[in-house]
């Protein structure tokens, strides 16, 4: 990803100052496709206003060279960041704990409601997009999934993830492991067909232009097993969007995201806001996205037992 699982962003748009956004990474590259017109206004980190997202994207990625530069500069930004939790979280390492805690509660609810028997006695596989140094995989995903694949375009982050997720550095049973490490940007990645129960996309999708956002999810849908789902966890602008000129990423509003989800053919099954982050950071929201329209578990429907994390050695 272009913001390896820690795409924190300062709420700089309130004062239109150029405070830099922190994120876990998020990489990207190039591929020319049709822009999606969005009649949503916004501004950049220098305070410049745009009448629409289309105006902004036309200026930033309006031709193949501009798009190549957009993605190259995004990766270049993260190549200069230390491969540590504090580095990928932009100096906010202390948000790691509340981030993982909220994500785990959300994931547990989803596994209970969407996966037969809460995932018990099944071989579950997840994809960690924009995995960075493996922060989310190590602290969360590898405890719930038998295999986790990591997708990260910044090479020194991915090498750190390999080391962090080596069997001797994990406290889970041998049935749980990091299987594949893909040094590939989101916009160029195509998953194996029906490999994943969950595709986790955190703090990296902001590096994708709208057309690549939609193309990624359309390709990634084929990588889900029947009944599989996406979790998108991202920063949220109060309205419109905020463009970060430094790391080449965009923070979208809830309305903006929902328009793109429609373009992707995805449905929001459940959403939840992150709590416990410093006030100066953007709000963060978790979306559970499915390829089919599903009904949430109702009060009259018996809930399945929750999935349990891997047994600690």
From TrEMBL:
Q: Pfam families attached here?
A: Methyltransf_PK
- The lineage's top-level taxon is Eukaryota
- Its Enzyme Commission number(s) read 2.1.1.244
Q: Keywords for this entry? A: Methyltransferase, S-adenosyl-L-methionine, Transferase
Q: Does the keyword tRNA processing apply?
A: no
Picking any one GO molecular function of the record gives: N-terminal protein N-methyltransferase activity
Catalytic reaction annotation: N-terminal L-alanyl-L-prolyl-L-lysyl-[protein] + 3 S-adenosyl-L-methionine = N-terminal N,N,N-trimethyl-L-alanyl-L-prolyl-L-lysyl-[protein] + 3 S-adenosyl-L-homocysteine + 3 H(+); N-terminal L-prolyl-L-prolyl-L-lysyl-[protein] + 2 S-adenosyl-L-methionine = N-terminal N,N-dimethyl-L-prolyl-L-prolyl-L-lysyl-[protein] + 2 S-adenosyl-L-homocysteine + 2 H(+); N-terminal L-seryl-L-prolyl-L-lysyl-[protein] + 3 S-adenosyl-L-methionine = N-terminal N,N,N-trimethyl-L-seryl-L-prolyl-L-lysyl-[protein] + 3 S-adenosyl-L-homocysteine + 3 H(+)
Q: Which GO terms describe its cellular component?
A: cytoplasm
Q: Give the GO biological process terms.
A: methylation
Its family?
Answer: Belongs to the methyltransferase superfamily. NTM1 family.
Q: What does this protein do?
A: Alpha-N-methyltransferase that methylates the N-terminus of target proteins containing the N-terminal motif [Ala/Pro/Ser]-Pro-Lys when the initiator Met is cleaved. Specifically catalyzes mono-, di- or tri-methylation of exposed alpha-amino group of Ala or Ser residue in the [Ala/Ser]-Pro-Lys motif and mono- or di-methylation of Pro in the Pro-Pro-Lys motif.
| Protein name as catalogued | Alpha N-terminal protein methyltransferase 1
- Provenance organism: Lactuca virosa
């Amino acid at each position: 990803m272009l913001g390896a699982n820690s795409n924190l962003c300062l709420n700089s748009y309130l004062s239109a100052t150029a405070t830099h956004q922190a994120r876990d990474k998020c990489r990207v590259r190039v591929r020319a496709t049709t822009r999606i017109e969005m009649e949503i206004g916004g501004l950049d980190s220098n305070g410049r206003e745009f009448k629409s997202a289309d105006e902004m994207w036309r200026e930033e990625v309006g031709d193949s060279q501009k798009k190549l530069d957009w993605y190259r500069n995004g990766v270049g930004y993260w190549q200069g960041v230390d491969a540590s939790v504090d580095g990928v979280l932009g100096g906010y390492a202390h948000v790691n704990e509340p981030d993982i805690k909220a994500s785990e509660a959300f994931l547990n609810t989803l596994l209970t409601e969407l996966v037969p028997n809460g995932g018990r006695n099944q071989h579950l596989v997840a994809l960690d997009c924009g995995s960075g140094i493996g922060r989310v995989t190590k602290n969360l995903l590898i405890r719930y999934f038998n295999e986790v694949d990591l997708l990260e375009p910044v090479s020194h982050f991915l090498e750190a993830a390999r080391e962090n997720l080596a069997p001797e550095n994990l406290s889970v049973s041998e049935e749980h492991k990091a299987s594949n490490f893909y040094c590939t940007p989101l916009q160029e990645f195509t998953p194996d067909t029906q490999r994943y129960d969950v595709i986790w996309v955190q703090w990296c999708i902001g590096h994708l232009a709208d057309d690549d956002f939609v193309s990624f999810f359309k390709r990634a849908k084929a990588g889900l097993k029947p009944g599989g789902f996406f979790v998108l966890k991202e920063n949220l602008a109060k309205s419109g969007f905020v463009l970060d000129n430094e790391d080449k990423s965009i923070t979208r509003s809830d309305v903006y995201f929902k328009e793109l989800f429609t373009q992707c053919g995805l449905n929001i099954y459940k959403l939840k806001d992150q709590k416990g982050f410093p006030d100066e950071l953007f709000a963060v929201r978790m979306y559970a996205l499915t390829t089919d329209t599903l009904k949430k578990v109702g009060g009259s429907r018996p809930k399945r037992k929750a999935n349990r994390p891997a047994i600690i050695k």
